[in-house]
Specification:
about 60 residues, mainly alpha, 434 Repressor (Amino-terminal Domain), about 60% helix, globular
């Protein structure tokens, strides 16, 4: 799944580790989501959307 997580994180000058701490996940999980190797669970997707004050569909694109 494509996503804008890396761009959104960079706009705020957050490291992967800083974002991971805010989301209560590992840095490796953030990296896997950013690179499209792993899709976040629905609860995690909601946490990400709330953190960036956006809708889930504005961050994640399920089109192949």
């Amino acid at each position: 799944m494509k996503n804008r997580l890396k761009v959104l994180r960079a706009e705020r000058n957050w490291s992967q580790a800083e974002l991971a701490t805010q989301l209560d996940v590992s840095r490796q999980a953030v990296n896997a989501i950013e690179t499209g190797k792993h899709d976040p669970s629905l609860p995690l997707a909601f946490r990400i959307a709330r953190l960036f004050d956006m809708k889930i569909e504005d961050i994640f694109d399920d089109e192949v």
